[in-house]
Write a structure and sequence with these properties.
Layout (H helix, E strand, L loop, with lengths): L3 H9 L4 H8 L3 H8 L7 H11 L3 H4 L8 E5 L7 H24 L21 H15 L7 H7 L3 E5 L9 E6 L2 E7 L4 H16 L6 H12 L13 H11 L5 H8 L3 H6 L6 H4 L7
Parallel strand pairs: 2-4
Antiparallel strand pairs: 1-3, 3-4
Length: 287
Amino acid sequence: MDCRRIKRARIGAGLSRKQVAERTGYTESVVRSIEAGLSPLDSSTLRILCQAMGVRMSYLVRPFSLELSDIHYLHSPLLSTPQRLRLEAETLDLAERHADLRQQLPPGYLHSLRVPHDIPDRITHHAQLDDAAKLLATAWRLNSGHCLADICMAYGVLVCHLQRSPPTLFRGLTANASGQPIIAISANWPTSRIQVITAKEIGRLILPPGTSESLLTWFSRALLGHYRPASPDEHPTLTLQLVRQAIDEEMISVSKGAEILGVSAQRLRLRHPHFSLAEAETVPLYP
């Protein structure tokens, strides 16, 4: 087990080592030693730590770890360092879950980022943005009636709706994890606002570097002009659908699917009619 995950879980929970020590009955030096990988760990110790930090055991023993790079916050200057660390921990947890799912699926289920070849290398007028939006909308089938976050995921961009974000201070962030572009947006925004932020950051990914904010805003409006959602209230469901399909085709076990979604295996077996990934993502790191 990578002991760095214990520190990441603590930071994600917004706890100091002293607070973890108080909750577990260990000394602060023992907690520090555990995080550094200098103290032996058994299942009992892991269980106590999980209860103290409010994380699932599967999070701590996850067989691989990703790191976020190129982190950029979208107009969120008032966030404190602890708030940023918690947001990054939630984003990273979701990225690792999707990476885990991607590893379980055969090639072709999910694509890498695909940019239409005819996107110009330099933008000089709005007509080019309209053409680029139409090209992308056609390539990504934005009129298919699926949720925008699901479409982005299918074509190589992970869009996360963060449930634990501060109600007013956080707009969103972009990052990269092992080549996977990530757009993380506060779930507190209304659906229309989430769509606009997503479309604008998609433009930042596919348009030439240095494209101005005003041109990116124009592109986002043009792109959403081609978008046809199934309903006004969007909830990402693609991960849930892929997990269920993988279970049905015996590519993964129910317990593995539950681990990816962050829910109990029993709940996943029941296939509750109102269950969706949006519900699972309300507690991406915490049970």
